């Protein structure tokens, strides 16, 4: 096998190995991002759950404050 063919094969192997290493690093970064997004999504769900009761309770609070509002309107 000529020397030029061997050099070409070695360079092609190095280029392919570098590309594979880069893709593996991208995979690890994407896995880390997925874990972070899962944590953020869980936090958003907790916030949504804790604030979901406000619209349910709000009419009863307004009804409880009706005498105060009527008194203030009378003054």
Itemize the secondary structure elements and their pairings.
Layout: H1 3-51, H2 53-64, H3 66-74
Description:
The chain has 75 residues and is mainly α. It has one domain (3-74). The chain has helices spanning 3-51, 53-64, 66-74. It is rod-shaped, with a radius of gyration of 32 Å. The model has no long low-confidence stretch (mean pLDDT 91).
Helix content: over 70%
Overall geometry comes to rod-shaped
Order of helices and strands: HHH
Q: Average pLDDT across residues?
A: 91
The amount of beta strand, in percent, is under 5%
* Low-pLDDT regions: none
Global Rg: 32 Å
Primary descriptors:
75 residues, mainly alpha, 3 helices
Quick description:
This protein is mostly helical and 75 residues long. The protein has one domain.
């Amino acid at each position: 096998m000529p020397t030029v063919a061997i050099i070409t094969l070695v360079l092609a192997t190095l280029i392919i190995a570098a590309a594979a290493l880069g893709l593996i690093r991208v995979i690890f970064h994407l896995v880390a991002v997925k874990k972070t997004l899962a944590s953020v999504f869980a936090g958003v769900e907790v916030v949504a759950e804790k604030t979901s009761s406000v619209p349910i309770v709000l009419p009863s609070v307004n009804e409880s404050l009706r005498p105060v509002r009527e008194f203030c309107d009378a003054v």
